[in-house]
Specification:
The chain is an alpha/beta fold. The chain has helices at about 10-25, 30-35, 55-60, 75-80, 120-130, 155-165, 180-190, 205-225, 230-245, and strands spanning about 45-50, 65-75, 90-95, 105-110, 135-145, 165-170, 170, 190-195, 200, 250-260. Helix 5 crosses helix 7, helix 6 packs across helix 8 (about 205-225) and helix 8 runs antiparallel to helix 9 (about 230-245). The mean pLDDT is about 95.
Length: about 260
């Protein structure tokens, strides 16, 4: 599988977003997945770019049968914290995802990963998963809604999406194009692909997450289009003030994909 490791994520960020991720993932994709898995005696699930195991903590209770999860990540700090919840056994694999061995997998999962990959890497992932189901969640689509609106929202969105599609270390990242590219790649390997929207819906109860998300978003804008730095900082100040006052609501659109063998 020709796939580079995803960018490093601090464990604090993963902890902060775990609840929003769990609320957003598309449960509508689970009935066809459970039907496909059927009465498998023991599910072996390989989670790519697992972080601290939030995907397993969300998904394992929603699947039947005894389960063993193999968690793949390049970051030993994250893997040291990886857990999957009660009654689930776990082994970890520290290294580049290019070296992940999926032998024996009943299911492959990943969360917030596809948009960090190139078209070639997604093609390698689709080839590696051919013949086994894959549940790939929380890929950004490039669309964000903030209420109340700000005149600079659209500029920030354009700059951020350009950053998501940047060339990094010789790799042309897909960013918001990833769900469409992944769908075509998996279908090209004889898989039936279902997609479903999985938006974050954030309000005052998740003000800390909004603040971190906004700060990271504007940092990417400054990196992508440095000429916007002063206006971007003023925008961030306005948005953080509205958030601190409990006035800001954010919808961050994602798309989940379920690929099943036998198109």
């Amino acid at each position: 599988m020709s796939m580079a490791a995803a960018s490093h994520c601090p464990p604090e960020w993963l902890d902060l977003r775990e609840g929003a991720d769990a609320d957003a993932r598309a449960t509508a994709l689970l009935p066809p997945l459970r039907a496909y898995l059927g009465d498998t005696e023991r599910l072996v699930v390989h989670d790519l770019g697992c972080g601290t195991g939030s995907m397993a903590r969300w998904l394992a209770p929603l699947l039947p049968n005894p389960q063993h999860w193999v968690m793949h990540d390049r970051d030993p700090v994250l893997l040291a914290r990886a857990t999957a919840g009660p009654g689930v056994t776990v082994t970890t694999d520290c290294g580049n995802l290019a070296d992940a061995d999926l032998t024996g997998a009943c299911l492959v999962t990943a969360s917030a990963l596809l948009d960090l990959l190139t078209a070639k890497e997604i093609g390698g992932l689709a080839a590696a998963c051919a013949g086994r189901p894959a549940l790939l969640t929380l890929s950004v689509t490039g669309r964000v809604e903030l209420t109340p609106a700000d005149p600079f929202d659209s500029v920030v969105e354009s700059a951020f999406n350009a950053h998501q599609r940047r060339v990094a270390a010789g790799r042309c990242l897909l960013g918001p194009d990833a769900p469409e590219v992944a769908t075509a790649a998996f279908e090209g390997h004889g898989m039936a692909v279902r997609g479903h929207e999985s938006p974050w819906r954030l309000g005052p109860d998740r003000a800390e997450l909004i603040a971190e998300w906004l700060t990271g978003r504007v940092a990417a804008v400054r990196e992508q289009w440095p000429d916007l730095a002063v206006r971007a900082e003023a925008y961030l100040d306005r948005r953080l003030a509205a958030n601190a006052a409990g006035e800001l609501h954010v919808v961050v659109h994602h798309r989940d994909l379920l690929a099943l063998p036998g198109a």
